[in-house]
User: Fold this.
Amino acid sequence: MATFVHIADERLTRRILRGGIRATEFAARVRDTAAPRHGVFCVPVVANFQMTFQWLRELKRNGYRLARGIQFRIDDTETVFVGHYNQAPQKMTAAQSIAFFLQAEDPRGLQVVVPRAIAAREITGIRSIPQVTGGASTPLRKQTALVAICRRNQCFKASSLDRSVEQRPLRAVT
Assistant:
């Protein structure tokens, strides 16, 4: 069984526990007849926290106040679509999608789409996610040494942090 995580707004967690995760309709960025037009966006659960929860920043930018990670399991042989967020997805099994994600040279921007709703019985748990966001505004943009951080309603702009870092000499952490 393959384990994935879907990042959802905390306000929806009760409904998701009762009825599962609804498949949402979306417009395909690339004209591909094989690409799904509805489904559940998710990412495989891997040992690297940054890779698993890479979409947290983008969802926070779109209005999520507090996000939760909805973990679910699907059969290894189930068909899913994997690809970069602005490229045509590839059709493969759930187990192959995890291997694809782990073997990717740069997994930033990769996403998995399960082309159906996720039933409540398939949900294995709801994780509290540290609400620290960071990284580039687009996953493949060149990242600076220090990124914007938002935690507990205190946000700092990356540009101001970058300027303050450039003006200070580096210190050894002890």
Notes: The helical segments are 13-19, 49-52, 56-61, 94-103, 158-167. The longest strand covers residues 2-9.
